[in-house]
Specification:
alpha/beta; Aspartate Aminotransferase, domain 1; four-stranded antiparallel sheet; 14 helices; binds pyridoxal-5'-phosphate
Length: about 400
Protein backbone atom coordinates (compact mmCIF):
# COMPACT_ATOMS: atom_id res chain seq x y z
CA UNK A 1 0.00 0.00 0.00
CA UNK A 2 1.43 3.41 -0.87
CA UNK A 3 0.93 6.20 1.59
CA UNK A 4 2.10 9.76 2.21
CA UNK A 5 4.47 9.62 5.17
CA UNK A 6 3.60 12.60 7.38
CA UNK A 7 7.20 13.75 7.85
CA UNK A 8 7.43 17.40 8.80
CA UNK A 9 8.85 19.81 6.23
CA UNK A 10 12.23 20.17 7.97
CA UNK A 11 12.75 16.42 8.05
CA UNK A 12 11.72 16.20 4.39
CA UNK A 13 14.25 18.89 3.60
CA UNK A 14 16.93 17.17 5.70
CA UNK A 15 16.60 13.80 3.98
CA UNK A 16 17.37 15.44 0.66
CA UNK A 17 20.61 16.97 1.99
CA UNK A 18 23.65 14.91 1.31
CA UNK A 19 26.66 15.91 3.37
CA UNK A 20 29.50 13.41 3.52
CA UNK A 21 29.67 12.53 7.20
CA UNK A 22 32.81 11.80 9.20
CA UNK A 23 31.43 8.34 9.95
CA UNK A 24 28.76 6.98 7.67
CA UNK A 25 25.71 5.57 9.43
CA UNK A 26 25.14 3.32 6.44
CA UNK A 27 28.57 1.71 6.32
CA UNK A 28 28.98 -1.27 8.60
CA UNK A 29 32.62 -0.68 9.47
CA UNK A 30 33.01 -4.00 11.22
CA UNK A 31 31.76 -5.82 8.12
CA UNK A 32 34.10 -3.72 5.96
CA UNK A 33 37.05 -4.68 8.16
CA UNK A 34 36.12 -8.39 8.04
CA UNK A 35 35.77 -8.16 4.28
CA UNK A 36 39.18 -6.46 3.88
CA UNK A 37 40.79 -9.08 6.09
CA UNK A 38 39.27 -11.94 4.10
CA UNK A 39 39.93 -10.42 0.67
CA UNK A 40 43.57 -9.51 1.32
CA UNK A 41 44.35 -12.32 3.79
CA UNK A 42 45.24 -9.85 6.53
CA UNK A 43 45.38 -10.79 10.20
CA UNK A 44 44.82 -7.21 11.38
CA UNK A 45 43.56 -3.87 10.16
CA UNK A 46 45.23 -0.72 11.54
CA UNK A 47 42.80 2.14 11.96
CA UNK A 48 44.47 5.32 10.85
CA UNK A 49 41.06 6.73 9.98
CA UNK A 50 39.68 7.70 13.42
CA UNK A 51 41.09 10.86 14.97
CA UNK A 52 41.30 9.71 18.58
CA UNK A 53 44.38 9.08 20.73
CA UNK A 54 45.14 5.43 20.02
CA UNK A 55 47.38 4.97 23.09
CA UNK A 56 44.36 4.62 25.30
CA UNK A 57 43.02 6.29 28.39
CA UNK A 58 44.40 7.28 31.79
CA UNK A 59 45.82 4.59 34.09
CA UNK A 60 43.29 5.79 36.65
CA UNK A 61 40.57 4.32 34.43
CA UNK A 62 42.39 1.02 34.30
CA UNK A 63 42.14 1.22 38.10
CA UNK A 64 38.36 1.74 37.81
CA UNK A 65 38.04 -1.32 35.57
CA UNK A 66 39.98 -3.41 38.05
CA UNK A 67 38.00 -2.28 41.09
CA UNK A 68 37.08 -5.21 43.28
CA UNK A 69 33.50 -4.01 43.72
CA UNK A 70 32.84 -2.96 40.10
CA UNK A 71 30.20 -5.67 39.68
CA UNK A 72 28.52 -4.45 42.88
CA UNK A 73 28.56 -0.87 41.58
CA UNK A 74 27.01 -2.05 38.31
CA UNK A 75 24.22 -3.89 40.10
CA UNK A 76 23.53 -0.85 42.25
CA UNK A 77 23.50 1.65 39.38
CA UNK A 78 21.89 -0.27 36.53
CA UNK A 79 18.54 -0.16 38.28
CA UNK A 80 18.65 3.62 38.86
CA UNK A 81 18.30 6.57 36.51
CA UNK A 82 21.78 8.14 36.29
CA UNK A 83 22.79 11.41 37.95
CA UNK A 84 22.14 14.09 35.32
CA UNK A 85 23.41 17.18 37.13
CA UNK A 86 27.09 16.36 36.70
CA UNK A 87 28.11 18.61 39.60
CA UNK A 88 31.29 16.71 40.47
CA UNK A 89 32.47 16.66 36.86
CA UNK A 90 31.57 20.31 36.31
CA UNK A 91 33.32 21.49 39.48
CA UNK A 92 36.51 19.75 38.44
CA UNK A 93 36.39 21.23 34.94
CA UNK A 94 35.54 24.67 36.31
CA UNK A 95 38.76 24.47 38.36
CA UNK A 96 40.80 23.35 35.32
CA UNK A 97 39.51 26.09 33.02
CA UNK A 98 39.17 28.73 35.76
CA UNK A 99 35.53 29.38 34.87
CA UNK A 100 32.38 29.40 37.00
CA UNK A 101 30.57 26.02 37.14
CA UNK A 102 27.50 27.79 35.70
CA UNK A 103 29.43 28.22 32.41
CA UNK A 104 29.30 24.47 31.65
CA UNK A 105 26.77 22.34 29.86
CA UNK A 106 27.32 18.59 29.36
CA UNK A 107 26.08 16.49 26.45
CA UNK A 108 26.25 13.00 24.97
CA UNK A 109 29.39 13.74 22.98
CA UNK A 110 29.96 16.91 20.99
CA UNK A 111 27.88 15.68 18.10
CA UNK A 112 24.82 16.04 20.36
CA UNK A 113 25.96 19.46 21.56
CA UNK A 114 26.31 20.56 17.93
CA UNK A 115 22.77 19.32 17.34
CA UNK A 116 21.46 21.23 20.40
CA UNK A 117 23.22 24.40 19.20
CA UNK A 118 21.66 24.08 15.73
CA UNK A 119 18.21 23.61 17.23
CA UNK A 120 18.70 26.59 19.53
CA UNK A 121 20.01 29.07 16.95
CA UNK A 122 19.09 28.02 13.42
CA UNK A 123 15.86 28.00 11.43
CA UNK A 124 14.78 28.38 7.79
CA UNK A 125 15.79 31.88 6.76
CA UNK A 126 18.79 32.05 9.09
CA UNK A 127 22.39 31.80 7.86
CA UNK A 128 25.41 30.02 9.23
CA UNK A 129 28.99 30.87 8.29
CA UNK A 130 31.24 27.87 7.67
CA UNK A 131 34.88 28.05 6.61
CA UNK A 132 35.52 24.91 4.51
CA UNK A 133 37.00 22.32 4.72
CA UNK A 134 35.70 21.77 8.25
CA UNK A 135 34.18 19.14 10.52
CA UNK A 136 31.29 17.88 8.36
CA UNK A 137 28.81 17.56 11.25
CA UNK A 138 28.61 21.37 11.54
CA UNK A 139 27.31 21.46 8.00
CA UNK A 140 24.99 18.45 8.03
CA UNK A 141 23.30 19.40 11.32
CA UNK A 142 23.01 23.07 10.32
CA UNK A 143 21.48 22.20 6.94
CA UNK A 144 18.85 19.95 8.47
CA UNK A 145 17.63 22.91 10.53
CA UNK A 146 16.67 24.60 7.24
CA UNK A 147 19.26 27.37 7.61
CA UNK A 148 21.33 28.51 4.61
CA UNK A 149 25.10 28.16 4.41
CA UNK A 150 27.60 30.94 3.82
CA UNK A 151 30.67 28.97 2.82
CA UNK A 152 34.12 30.48 3.05
CA UNK A 153 36.42 28.33 0.93
CA UNK A 154 39.93 28.19 2.38
CA UNK A 155 42.56 28.86 -0.26
CA UNK A 156 44.07 25.73 -1.81
CA UNK A 157 47.16 27.76 -2.74
CA UNK A 158 47.65 28.29 1.00
CA UNK A 159 47.15 24.55 1.65
CA UNK A 160 43.68 25.28 3.07
CA UNK A 161 45.18 27.19 6.01
CA UNK A 162 43.56 30.19 7.67
CA UNK A 163 45.52 33.37 6.94
CA UNK A 164 45.03 37.05 7.82
CA UNK A 165 43.00 37.24 4.60
CA UNK A 166 40.65 34.53 5.85
CA UNK A 167 40.01 36.56 8.98
CA UNK A 168 39.36 39.71 6.94
CA UNK A 169 36.86 37.81 4.78
CA UNK A 170 35.17 36.38 7.88
CA UNK A 171 34.86 39.84 9.41
CA UNK A 172 33.34 41.23 6.20
CA UNK A 173 30.88 38.35 5.81
CA UNK A 174 29.76 38.64 9.43
CA UNK A 175 29.19 42.36 9.09
CA UNK A 176 27.42 42.09 5.76
CA UNK A 177 25.30 38.93 6.26
CA UNK A 178 24.87 38.85 10.04
CA UNK A 179 24.63 35.05 10.25
CA UNK A 180 23.06 33.46 13.31
CA UNK A 181 26.08 31.22 13.82
CA UNK A 182 29.75 30.95 12.90
CA UNK A 183 31.37 27.49 13.07
CA UNK A 184 35.09 27.20 13.79
CA UNK A 185 37.04 24.09 14.69
CA UNK A 186 40.34 24.83 16.40
CA UNK A 187 42.63 23.04 15.77
CA UNK A 188 40.89 22.72 12.43
CA UNK A 189 39.53 19.31 11.51
CA UNK A 190 40.74 18.08 9.00
CA UNK A 191 43.81 20.29 8.31
CA UNK A 192 45.21 20.20 11.87
CA UNK A 193 45.99 23.93 11.77
CA UNK A 194 45.92 25.83 15.05
CA UNK A 195 44.26 29.21 14.60
CA UNK A 196 45.81 32.03 16.68
CA UNK A 197 43.63 33.12 19.58
CA UNK A 198 43.83 36.77 18.43
CA UNK A 199 42.05 35.80 15.17
CA UNK A 200 39.33 33.97 17.09
CA UNK A 201 38.94 37.02 19.31
CA UNK A 202 38.62 39.36 16.32
CA UNK A 203 35.91 37.14 14.76
CA UNK A 204 34.04 36.82 18.06
CA UNK A 205 34.09 40.57 18.67
CA UNK A 206 32.86 41.41 15.18
CA UNK A 207 30.16 38.77 15.63
CA UNK A 208 29.06 40.19 18.98
CA UNK A 209 28.54 43.60 17.38
CA UNK A 210 25.90 42.12 15.02
CA UNK A 211 24.31 39.56 17.43
CA UNK A 212 26.03 36.57 15.85
CA UNK A 213 27.00 33.59 17.99
CA UNK A 214 30.37 31.84 17.50
CA UNK A 215 31.14 28.18 18.15
CA UNK A 216 34.78 27.22 18.62
CA UNK A 217 35.01 23.45 18.67
CA UNK A 218 38.21 22.51 20.50
CA UNK A 219 37.71 18.74 20.22
CA UNK A 220 41.48 18.50 19.62
CA UNK A 221 42.23 21.49 21.87
CA UNK A 222 44.35 19.56 24.37
CA UNK A 223 46.85 18.84 21.61
CA UNK A 224 47.72 22.56 21.48
CA UNK A 225 47.09 23.74 25.04
CA UNK A 226 50.76 24.48 25.83
CA UNK A 227 51.18 26.45 22.59
CA UNK A 228 48.15 28.39 23.64
CA UNK A 229 49.86 29.05 26.97
CA UNK A 230 46.80 27.41 28.52
CA UNK A 231 44.69 30.02 26.79
CA UNK A 232 42.31 28.23 24.47
CA UNK A 233 39.23 30.12 23.37
CA UNK A 234 37.79 29.21 26.78
CA UNK A 235 39.87 32.12 28.16
CA UNK A 236 37.62 34.47 26.12
CA UNK A 237 34.42 33.01 27.57
CA UNK A 238 33.98 35.40 30.54
CA UNK A 239 34.26 38.50 28.34
CA UNK A 240 32.47 37.26 25.19
CA UNK A 241 28.87 36.15 25.87
CA UNK A 242 28.32 35.11 22.23
CA UNK A 243 31.11 32.51 22.36
CA UNK A 244 30.54 28.75 22.85
CA UNK A 245 33.66 26.64 23.30
CA UNK A 246 33.35 22.87 22.95
CA UNK A 247 35.57 20.06 24.25
CA UNK A 248 35.20 16.29 24.44
CA UNK A 249 36.53 13.18 26.15
CA UNK A 250 36.65 11.43 22.75
CA UNK A 251 40.02 12.65 21.49
CA UNK A 252 43.12 13.07 23.70
CA UNK A 253 41.39 11.33 26.61
CA UNK A 254 40.84 8.33 24.29
CA UNK A 255 37.29 7.76 25.55
CA UNK A 256 34.93 8.07 22.54
CA UNK A 257 32.91 5.17 23.92
CA UNK A 258 31.64 7.08 26.95
CA UNK A 259 30.03 9.81 24.79
CA UNK A 260 30.76 12.79 27.02
CA UNK A 261 31.32 16.28 25.62
CA UNK A 262 30.83 19.76 27.04
CA UNK A 263 30.28 23.40 26.25
CA UNK A 264 31.75 26.42 28.01
CA UNK A 265 29.79 29.65 27.60
CA UNK A 266 29.47 32.82 29.66
CA UNK A 267 25.85 33.59 28.82
CA UNK A 268 23.41 31.72 31.10
CA UNK A 269 20.64 32.11 28.50
CA UNK A 270 22.64 30.09 25.97
CA UNK A 271 23.46 27.44 28.58
CA UNK A 272 19.73 27.15 29.34
CA UNK A 273 18.77 27.12 25.67
CA UNK A 274 20.99 24.18 24.73
CA UNK A 275 19.86 22.31 27.84
CA UNK A 276 16.26 22.44 26.57
CA UNK A 277 17.21 20.08 23.76
CA UNK A 278 19.36 17.79 25.85
CA UNK A 279 17.70 14.47 26.65
CA UNK A 280 16.93 14.08 30.36
CA UNK A 281 19.52 11.32 30.73
CA UNK A 282 21.98 11.63 27.85
CA UNK A 283 24.47 8.91 28.88
CA UNK A 284 24.90 6.14 31.42
CA UNK A 285 26.20 6.37 35.00
CA UNK A 286 29.30 4.47 33.88
CA UNK A 287 30.19 7.18 31.36
CA UNK A 288 29.96 9.78 34.09
CA UNK A 289 32.00 7.65 36.46
CA UNK A 290 34.76 7.26 33.86
CA UNK A 291 34.71 10.97 32.86
CA UNK A 292 34.99 12.00 36.51
CA UNK A 293 38.03 9.75 36.84
CA UNK A 294 39.63 10.95 33.59
CA UNK A 295 39.55 14.65 34.57
CA UNK A 296 41.50 13.96 37.72
CA UNK A 297 44.51 12.79 35.69
CA UNK A 298 46.36 15.97 34.61
CA UNK A 299 49.31 13.97 33.32
CA UNK A 300 47.56 11.81 30.72
CA UNK A 301 46.91 14.60 28.16
CA UNK A 302 50.43 15.96 28.64
CA UNK A 303 52.01 12.56 28.03
CA UNK A 304 49.75 11.90 25.04
CA UNK A 305 50.68 15.27 23.55
CA UNK A 306 54.42 14.67 24.02
CA UNK A 307 54.25 11.19 22.52
CA UNK A 308 52.30 12.46 19.53
CA UNK A 309 54.80 15.24 18.92
CA UNK A 310 57.74 12.81 18.95
CA UNK A 311 56.03 10.33 16.64
CA UNK A 312 54.91 13.11 14.33
CA UNK A 313 58.52 14.26 13.92
CA UNK A 314 59.64 10.70 13.14
CA UNK A 315 56.82 10.12 10.69
CA UNK A 316 57.26 13.41 8.89
CA UNK A 317 61.03 12.99 8.61
CA UNK A 318 60.35 9.72 6.77
CA UNK A 319 57.69 11.31 4.59
CA UNK A 320 60.13 14.10 3.72
CA UNK A 321 62.26 11.51 1.93
CA UNK A 322 59.34 10.24 -0.17
CA UNK A 323 59.00 12.51 -3.18
CA UNK A 324 55.63 11.14 -4.29
CA UNK A 325 53.77 12.32 -1.20
CA UNK A 326 52.69 15.71 0.02
CA UNK A 327 51.50 16.16 3.60
CA UNK A 328 50.24 19.17 5.53
CA UNK A 329 51.89 20.11 8.84
CA UNK A 330 49.55 19.60 11.76
CA UNK A 331 49.24 20.59 15.42
CA UNK A 332 47.08 17.55 16.27
CA UNK A 333 47.36 13.76 16.05
CA UNK A 334 45.98 13.66 12.50
CA UNK A 335 47.36 14.95 9.21
CA UNK A 336 46.37 15.23 5.56
CA UNK A 337 48.39 13.43 2.91
CA UNK A 338 48.11 12.92 -0.84
CA UNK A 339 50.04 11.12 -3.54
CA UNK A 340 51.15 13.35 -6.37
CA UNK A 341 49.81 11.05 -9.07
CA UNK A 342 47.56 8.41 -7.46
CA UNK A 343 43.99 9.60 -6.73
CA UNK A 344 42.68 9.33 -3.16
CA UNK A 345 40.21 6.51 -3.90
CA UNK A 346 42.95 4.33 -5.35
CA UNK A 347 45.49 5.22 -2.65
CA UNK A 348 42.84 4.42 -0.02
CA UNK A 349 42.34 1.01 -1.64
CA UNK A 350 46.06 0.27 -1.95
CA UNK A 351 46.60 1.10 1.72
CA UNK A 352 43.50 -0.84 2.80
CA UNK A 353 44.82 -3.87 0.91
CA UNK A 354 47.90 -3.59 3.14
CA UNK A 355 45.77 -3.41 6.27
CA UNK A 356 45.92 0.38 6.70
CA UNK A 357 42.51 2.03 6.97
CA UNK A 358 42.58 5.79 6.32
CA UNK A 359 39.91 8.47 5.91
CA UNK A 360 39.26 9.54 2.32
CA UNK A 361 38.58 13.29 2.30
CA UNK A 362 37.53 13.53 -1.34
CA UNK A 363 33.86 13.86 -0.37
CA UNK A 364 34.41 16.59 2.24
CA UNK A 365 33.03 19.97 1.24
CA UNK A 366 35.92 22.26 0.31
CA UNK A 367 38.26 19.36 -0.50
CA UNK A 368 36.43 17.62 -3.35
CA UNK A 369 38.85 16.42 -5.98
CA UNK A 370 41.89 17.41 -3.92
CA UNK A 371 42.79 13.73 -3.41
CA UNK A 372 43.68 13.92 0.27
CA UNK A 373 43.51 11.17 2.88
CA UNK A 374 43.43 11.95 6.60
CA UNK A 375 45.69 9.82 8.75
CA UNK A 376 45.86 9.44 12.53
CA UNK A 377 49.27 9.19 14.18
CA UNK A 378 49.35 5.88 16.06
CA UNK A 379 51.98 3.97 18.06
CA UNK A 380 55.52 3.92 16.61
CA UNK A 381 55.31 0.34 15.36
CA UNK A 382 52.00 1.02 13.59
CA UNK A 383 53.37 4.21 12.03
CA UNK A 384 56.35 2.21 10.75
CA UNK A 385 53.91 -0.22 9.10
CA UNK A 386 52.12 2.70 7.49
CA UNK A 387 55.40 4.15 6.17
CA UNK A 388 56.26 0.73 4.81
CA UNK A 389 52.90 0.54 3.03
CA UNK A 390 53.33 4.06 1.63
CA UNK A 391 56.81 3.13 0.38
CA UNK A 392 55.46 0.00 -1.27
CA UNK A 393 52.86 2.09 -3.06
CA UNK A 394 55.51 4.63 -4.01
CA UNK A 395 57.77 1.95 -5.41
CA UNK A 396 54.76 0.51 -7.21
CA UNK A 397 54.89 -2.90 -5.55
CA UNK A 398 51.38 -3.41 -7.03
C1 LIG B 1 36.03 18.88 15.50
C2 LIG B 1 35.23 17.75 16.08
N1 LIG B 1 34.19 18.02 16.88
C3 LIG B 1 33.45 17.05 17.43
C4 LIG B 1 33.72 15.72 17.18
C5 LIG B 1 32.82 14.68 17.77
O1 LIG B 1 33.13 14.51 19.11
P1 LIG B 1 32.28 13.55 20.03
O2 LIG B 1 32.91 12.20 19.96
O3 LIG B 1 32.40 14.17 21.39
O4 LIG B 1 30.87 13.52 19.52
C6 LIG B 1 34.78 15.38 16.36
C7 LIG B 1 35.07 13.96 16.06
O5 LIG B 1 35.74 13.60 15.12
C8 LIG B 1 35.56 16.42 15.81
O6 LIG B 1 36.60 16.15 15.01
Amino acid sequence: MSWQIPLNSLTRHAVTQNVEDYLSKDTDEYALIDELKARHRLSRIYRFDIGKNTDGYSDLIEGVLEMADLAGLCRENLVEYPDNHYQKLVKRMAAIFKLAPSCFSISAGLECMIDHICRSFLHPGAHFLLPIPNFSVFESFSLRSGASPLYLQLDKNQNFQWTEKTVEKMLDLIKEKQPALVWISNPVNPTGQSIPISWIQAVTERALAVNTAVVVDEAYGEYIDPDYDRKGAFSLVPSHPNLMVLRTFSKIHALPGIRVGYMMCGDPEIINAVKIYRPMFPFSWFSLFVAQTAVVDDEQPIKARQKTLKRKRELFSRLDTMADYQYLPTTTNTFMLRHRSIPADLLWQKLAARGMLTANLNGINGLQGEEFLRITIRARADNARLINALENVENKVC
